[in-house]
Amino acid sequence: GTVIRFPITAGEPVTQGSLVKPGDRGFLAAALGPGMRAITVPVSARTGVGGFVFPGDRVDMMLTQSVQGEGGGAQALQTAETILTNLRVLATDQSTETTTGEDGRTVVRAFRTVTLEVTPRIAEKVAVAQTIGTLSLSLRSIADNQSELEKAIASGDIKVPDDATP
User: Fold this and answer.
1) Confidence class of residue 99 from pLDDT cuts 50, 70 and 90?
2) Which residues pair with 67 in a beta bridge?
3) Where are the alpha helices (DSSP H) in 62-162?
4) What angle do CA 68, 70, 74 make, to 5 degrees?
5) How far apart are alpha carbons 49 and 59 in whole angstroms?
6) Beta strands at 134-139 and 58-67: parallel, antiparallel or unpaired
7) Which of 16, 23, 48, 107 lies 20 to 30 Å (CA to CA) from residue 56?
8) Is the pTM value of this prediction over 0.85?
9) First vs last C-alpha separation in the chain
């Protein structure tokens, strides 16, 4: 769970000052990929998969909104659409660690916010979506992430080094 604070060159000693642990100041910024941003969205038990979203999980984001029909007396249409897919969860509320109980099981607790890793453009999209309607998260299967990676490799979108293992 520890990440480096800045790049380390070959042969350079790794010191405690160059490492950041979960919960330390600056951990979230160090955990972000290059060019990525962290954005926090409000959730509830209903919109946040009942508290079963943990740091490291991948989620899709849906926007639910009311669209007014044509004419003055027309009833508003309720609609939902998936606006973003495969977003990495960085933290829930202010926790970047998964808590386990005395019996070793993961403790599920209610949280009010989820912090996601996004590109700057996606951050703008999320900010606008929050003003339009309600955001909900849907948890992705770990198997989905593997199949998407395999599709990207097969299509040539991702280049795998020749010496990489399957």
Assistant:
1) low
2) 77
3) 120-132, 142-155
4) 70
5) 10
6) antiparallel
7) 16
8) no
9) 24
